[in-house]
Amino acid sequence: MQRKQNIIPLSNVKINGGFLADIQNLIASEVLPYQWAALNDEIPDAQPSHSIHNLEIAAGRSTGEFYGEVFQDSDLAKWLEAACYCMIIKPDDALQQKIDFAVELIADAQMDDGYLNTYFSVMAPEKRWTDLQECHEMYCVGHFMEAAVAHYQATGSHRMLDIMERAFDQMASVIGPEEGKIHGYPGHPEIELALMRMYEVTGKEKYAAYADYLMDVRGKQPFFYDEEQQTRGYIKYPENIPFGRKYTQSHMPVVDQVEAAGHAVRALYLFSGVLDAAAHYDHSDLLHTMNAVYEDITTKKMFITGGVGSTHVGEAFTSAYDLPNALTYNETCASIALGMFSDRLCRLYGQAKYADVLERVLYNGIISSMSMDGKRFFYVNPLQVNPAIQNNNPDYNHVKTERQQWFGCACCPPNVARYYMSVGDKLYTSCEDTLFVNLYAQSEVCWDSNKLALHTNYPADGNIRIACECAKPCKVCLRIPDWCENYTLSGTADALSESGYLEVELLEGTHTFELHLEMKPKRIWSNTLVSADAGRVALQYGPIVYCIESADNGDRIDELCILHDSDINIIENGFAWGLPELEVNGVREHLSGPLYCAKPPTQVPVKLRLVPYFAWGNRGKGEMSVWIRER
Ligand SMILES: [Zn+2]
């Protein structure tokens, strides 16, 4: 199937100011060095990583035991991918040296036959490929492949691609559809989307064909994992048994998975890869399923922040409209994976509605995971926090009320780094002479011999000056976000295309025009089937979701109500990367003394101050809530 939009490579996009540039600068200057230190176990008092040391042991450069999770290799792989994107947009000699060191370390850690996974090569080489369900070998190969793609894009070198081709060939010699091979598939999907990326940069059909095989074989009966367990004779993670087959999306063939179920990150990585492979092979039934499951997620199972995965039990999707603000899991990686699924759908179908979800996760549910100094991270992203209660109730053990230095299972922090360092290739897409502007940021882009520059403070405001230098006639399609009710283009309100873009035909020459997206704070209500939000309202400004915190409003924030008829005022010069704070009239309801009482609470007028959700928890420990009671 022909994609409506194609990726514009990072080398052709320059983000040169504003919110996203601030985040990229932070990642380049602080996050990547910090994470490199973490991967080298150099952060005092942080949970150890051992990711690099495991590779050094496997490479014969060091001695000792493997330490950490079976997927510990993937932490370095994601860091390497992020670092390579950084080299494209902000070249740096010291970073290049670390990249070179990492690539040669991976090469040395690779076994003679091409196999690459330090858990097995150090601990139990005889057990390679015996536990596809639980042991993440394919998942790690997938992340190394994504790093290889980024390394090639950054350097033009085939070194890392060659390493991963050897790893692929070894894997495909053991697992595959042919007789005599293991007819298996990964318990943690990821490699599917990585294979499609390998195909896209190398043009080698074997990668796409293998992704096609993996999605075809998944969930068919007899169930592969049952057979595998029987052959193996043991279960490595018995604690995962209660989660059932849905945990690994192996409960039914992928084509039947029209409702999102099981582990949210696994599901969304799978769907992203399936979408790419199904589009490549024009599997219309699978494409139909991917559309259905996306609809299921984004209209019934997604938090206003773009968080997904409502329960920590199996880190999973639950039923429609079950969106518990305090208890939720909302793993950072799940929002990242939802962003990946969304931008792939956007490119395939050319519909602005997918970029609406991409924007939601980009400015809310992903960036919330990182502290504003780039050195602390959330794994779980709740929408409501009360440390006094949550720190003393084991039901909330998965929810940290303060960001952490590092994690024993550290999938999220380097994932955030690679996501924002590659956001440039999500702002714009193209199709021949047409440029699609999917996300707005101060930036420049080159496509098809033409140049376009956006001058804007977005998302701090909705004014965007667009300057085009067209070497030949072209079309520019400007996405009108779902939150924007009124817009003008150089003073006129042109009609939207059916796909949600404003289309501007340009002749050869230089052009400037102004897009004004009316951005004003607004109340958002949830569907009344969401019981967790009943009687509550959230405030949003442009794409940014806001919250109240103790730091501005004192403790006992659940006593606070927003008055339904209050104006919402914008307070400039907030602490959150140039974004304003909001102020609204409310009341504090208070009832103390007995636990239950026949008298209603007292009401005291107050002004409520709100900050962007992503910035919560940067000013000490306290309570936070996105959804606020309304009076
Ligand atoms: Zn994660």
Structure write-up:
The chain contains 18 helices and 23 strands. It is of the alpha+beta class and 631 residues long. It has a six-stranded antiparallel beta sheet with strand order 2-8-9-10-14-12. The longest helix has 22 residues. The relative contact order is 0.10. The mean pLDDT is 96. Bound molecules: zinc ion. Zinc ion binds next to helix 13 and helix 16.
List the helices and strands and how they pair.
Blueprint: E1 6-7, E2 13-15, H1 18-39, H2 51-58, H3 73-89, H4 93-109, H5 118-123, H6 137-155, H7 159-174, H8 191-202, H9 205-217, H10 224-232, E3 262-263, H11 264-281, H12 284-300, E4 316-317, H13 332-349, H14 352-365, E5 384-385, H15 387-390, H16 412-421, H17 424-427, E6 428-431, E7 434-437, E8 443-447, E9 450-456, E10 463-470, E11 474-479, E12 487-489, E13 501-506, E14 509-517, E15 522-524, E16 536-541, E17 544-549, H18 550-553, E18 560-562, E19 568-576, E20 579-590, E21 602-612, E22 624-625, E23 628-630
Parallel strand pairs: 7-11, 18-23
Antiparallel strand pairs: 1-6, 2-8, 3-4, 5-22, 6-7, 8-9, 9-10, 10-14, 11-13, 12-14, 15-16, 16-17, 16-23, 17-21, 17-22, 18-20, 19-20, 20-21
Helix pairs in contact: 1-3, 1-16, 2-3, 2-4, 3-4, 3-6, 3-16, 6-7, 6-8, 8-9, 8-11, 9-11, 11-12, 11-13, 13-14
Bound molecules: zinc ion.
Zinc ion (ZN) binds near residues 332, 333, 411, 412 and 415.
